[in-house]
Amino acid sequence: MNYDHTLDKHQLRRSFERAAPSYDVAAVLQREVCDRMLARLNYIKHTPDFILDIGSGTGYGSRNLATRFPASKILAVDIALSMHLKARPPVPWWKPFASAHGRQTIYTCGDIESLPVRDSCSGLVWSNLTLQWCNDIRHTFSEVRRVLQPGGLFMFSTFGPDTLKELRQAFRSVDNYSHINRFTDMHDIGDMLVHNGFATPVMDMEYITLTYDDVISVMKDLRTIGARNVTEGRAHGLTGRVRWQKMIDHYESLRVDGKLPATFEVIYGHAWKPLPRKEIGKIITKHVSTDQFPLSG
Length: 297
Known about the structure:
Blueprint: H1 9-19, H2 23-26, H3 28-40, E1 50-54, H4 60-68, E2 73-78, H5 81-87, E3 105-109, E4 122-128, H6 137-147, E5 148-159, H7 165-172, H8 186-195, E6 199-212, H9 215-224, H10 241-252, E7 260-272
Parallel strand pairs: 1-2, 1-4, 2-3, 4-5
Antiparallel strand pairs: 5-7, 6-7
């Protein structure tokens, strides 16, 4: 048996490429969490000139950020090209070679663990439910700090260890393969932010429980949003009929009021990249070119 939770990034990309056409149909939780993140911005006084939306998906967060910060430029980064093709507004037939000039949002493919942008370029790094797809969150936080401007804000959401606990328990009754992604505890995330030099991190958590009529519906929703099992410790083959039925029977024992629960532990956080000591107390005005985005060469 292999219980390795290391993510296969090639398979992860393929999974989200396939999920893009149907993603918005099932991404109810992702939109809800994004809305709750946006509401938290109401209590933070910060107007970034340049926003980096990492794990932008089909663009729900980018569009809302564009509305909230109409003067800001946005770079949407996602690992799957097909997600961008869903997010990007179509180019008019009469303007096939439309340039980036004048657009508020530009799209590029990239991995959150190796961001394709220059140092100290972004006033806000935004990440909605993407960190759980990282193999090394500590390194990811280092990357985020690298691309943030001094005084810039990092705002994110991710899933905690109790996420999909019912499905995890059901599979553990069958075998010891890795079937569910590994999720990081909120306190460990806070410690990693501090270790990477972020200032005044704020963390909170809530449980959101979705209900389903049957186990197949749970699995179908996860596949539709691209949340397939891409861990290295997954079973490389079909689950036998007997084991599959045993898993279903175990999950059925968790039925409450006629419905099967699927629990998600949602973690929210934000932190700041500190200003250099010599700059504290000064008023600093920064500008980002309206003609170029700070992609690394």
